[in-house]
């Protein structure tokens, strides 16, 4: 295949587009000839036929050698003595396949090229530009059309259009970039952004768009494949490279619904999803719409699901479970009672047990700190800044808001009393859960705590609280140390088992009659001793 390179200042005017060439000389190679385009103040002697020459003396004129060779000025012809005339002289080439009328059937390929680099001269680029509209007119600017020739017989191979960047030179050279950019809409017409439309497989490129699918902006890029019975496909691939990446960034695909904005054809909507390190959901609900096939697969997330061949199942509510066998037959939500235990009715079936799972309301099942109460007096604090501690166990979940106790010696005075609950392990700092004090740092005066004998009750300052099964430390404290009938006394059981009891000396606290926010527990010391008779309900 032979190649013709055409580059000249006059050619800028030829197609009403701009071919930008920097440098004094450019070349046009014609089959079998070496034709030079040059300029000067006098016509050259001995030029080959069809040589173009720009005479620069006076008004620029374009001359064409009409003899072989041109030995005198009379062998040169021109259409006019001005730049406009030069345009007219060459305009007969517009609208036809470039150069084919000059070198018919010669196999010449027309090439638009910038000036190649030479010693002392840098290479130049080439630009195809449509003509601008005339100032202050409504003229439509000149377009640019690039189209290959059409085949003329069935089975003939059509021509291609290729836009190819240059490879990087050597081992570290950069490959060339290709930029394709549409125009933005006007500052007050955001919906008028330029449209880029790619059509393949016989599809017709979209020429305009005025109805946005979502939001207030119309689509500005289209990829269309196929038309009527003609197939088409759009693929985003990584070129078989292990390092190739296809990434969509900031694209608001609405996968939360089965809609046509994502994948129009249901047969090509996502079927299998492969997750690398994690699955992030915007909601706790996971379900399906219409598909009844089983969901299963191998989950290999280290630290989450050990081993392999774990089956992922869904129940009637869309909740996910993981099993090593078949998916269980989970009853519907109407078969279960809220707050009840679930019991197994077979190897892979469940049903409601009819047994309440708690926490149990204190009014239904109160916590009795001493199941058998001998009505022995608990006794009084014998020294200042002391509290009695009792290590007790709660064996069921309970919801409590009130403390009941039996006053056997009243104290209708200002002496302070407090009862508190702490939870925790031995030899640790335990936070106070509940107490009956008037504030977080005080207890209750005798006028409130024990104004008269008999059963009394006070609400917990912290309000209704659920107590989980476990270990609890019960504290009783008062600033009344006179003993006898001067201090309130409550009923207790003479001998009860406890996992901790420090003795009648109690533990030291900051202020008698006010339980502290935290309590530092000691090692367990099981004992049978006196325990107050209380109902935590």
CATH uppermost class of the domain at 361-536: Mainly Beta
Largest sheet: 7 strands, antiparallel
Overall average residue pLDDT = 74
What count of helical segments does DSSP give?
3
Second CATH tier, the architecture of the domain at 361-536: Sandwich
* Strand residues, percent: 25-35%
Please tally the β strands and state the result: 30
Proportion of residues in helical segments = under 10%
Structural features, described:
With 537 residues, the chain is an all-beta fold. Among the domains are: 2-112, no CATH class; 295-357, no CATH class; 361-536, Jelly Rolls, CATH 2.60.120. The chain has helices at 11-14, 83-90, 446-449; strands spanning 2-6, 26-30, 33-40, 52-55, 61-65, 76-77, 108-112, 196-200, 221-225, 311-314, 320-323, 340-346, 349-356, 360-361, 367-368, 376-377, 386-394, 398-400, 402-409, 416-423, 429-435, 444-445, 454-459, 465-467, 470-478, 489-498, 507-508, 518-520, 527-532, 534-536. The strands form eight sheets. Strands 15, 16, 19, 23, 26, 29 and 30 form a seven-stranded antiparallel β-sheet that branches. A hairpin with a 2-residue loop joins strand 12 and strand 13 (349-356). The longest helix is centred in the N-terminal third of the chain and has 8 residues, at 83-90. It starts with a strand and ends with a strand.
């Amino acid at each position: 295949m032979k190649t013709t390179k055409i580059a000249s200042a006059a050619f800028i005017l030829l197609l009403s587009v701009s071919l930008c060439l920097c440098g004094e000389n450019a070349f046009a190679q014609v089959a079998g000839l070496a034709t030079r385009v040059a300029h000067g103040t006098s016509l050259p002697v001995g030029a080959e036929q069809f040589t173009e020459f720009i005479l620069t003396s006076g008004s620029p004129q374009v001359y064409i050698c009409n003899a072989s060779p041109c030995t005198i000025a009379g062998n040169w012809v021109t259409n006019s003595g001005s730049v406009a005339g030069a345009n007219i002289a060459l305009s007969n080439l517009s609208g036809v396949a470039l150069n084919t009328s000059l070198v018919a059937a010669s196999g010449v390929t027309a090439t638009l090229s910038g000036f190649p680099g030479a010693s002392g001269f840098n290479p130049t680029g080439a630009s195809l530009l449509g003509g601008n509209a005339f100032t202050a007119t409504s003229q439509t600017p000149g377009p640019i059309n690039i189209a290959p020739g059409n085949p003329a017989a069935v089975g003939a191979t059509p021509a291609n259009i290729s836009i190819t960047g240059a490879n990087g030179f050597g081992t570290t050279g950069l490959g060339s970039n290709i930029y394709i950019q549409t125009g933005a809409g006007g500052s007050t017409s955001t919906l008028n952004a330029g449209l880029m439309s790619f059509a393949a497989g016989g599809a017709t490129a979209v020429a305009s768009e005025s109805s946005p699918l979502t939001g207030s902006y119309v689509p500005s890029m289209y990829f269309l494949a196929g038309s009527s019975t003609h197939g088409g496909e759009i693929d985003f691939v990584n070129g078989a490279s292990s390092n190739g990446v296809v990434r969509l960034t900031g694209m608001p695909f609405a996968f939360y619904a089965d809609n046509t904005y994502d994948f129009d054809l249901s047969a090509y909507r996502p079927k299998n999803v492969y997750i690398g390190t994690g699955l992030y959901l915007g909601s706790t609900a996971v379900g399906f719409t219409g598909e009844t096939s089983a969901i299963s697969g191998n989950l290999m997330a280290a630290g989450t699901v050990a081993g392999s061949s774990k089956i992922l199942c869904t129940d009637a509510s869309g909740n996910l479970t993981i099993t090593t066998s078949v998916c269980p037959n989970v009853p519907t939500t109407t078969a279960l009672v809220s707050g009840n235990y679930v019991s197994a009715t077979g190897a892979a079936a469940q049903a409601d047990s009819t047994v309440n799972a708690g926490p149990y309301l204190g009014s239904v099942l109160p916590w009795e700190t001493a199941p058998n109460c001998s009505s022995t007096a608990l006794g009084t604090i014998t020294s200042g800044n002391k509290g009695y501690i009792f290590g007790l166990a709660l064996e069921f979940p309970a919801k409590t808001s009130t403390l009941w106790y039996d006053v056997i010696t009243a104290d209708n005075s200002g002496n302070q009393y407090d009862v508190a609950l702490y939870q925790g392990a031995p030899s640790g700092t335990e936070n106070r859960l509940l107490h009956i004090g008037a504030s977080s740092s005080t207890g209750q005066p005798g006028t409130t705590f024990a104004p008269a004998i008999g059963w009394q009750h006070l609400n917990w300052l912290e309000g209704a609280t659920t107590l989980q099964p476990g270990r609890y430390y019960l504290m009783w404290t008062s600033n009344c140390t006179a003993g006898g009938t001067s201090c309130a006394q409550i009923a207790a059981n003479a001998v009860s088992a406890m996992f901790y009891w420090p003795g009648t000396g109690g533990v030291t606290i900051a202020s008698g009659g006010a339980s502290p926010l935290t309590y530092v527990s000691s090692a367990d010391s099981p004992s049978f001793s006196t325990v107050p008779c209380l109902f935590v309900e």
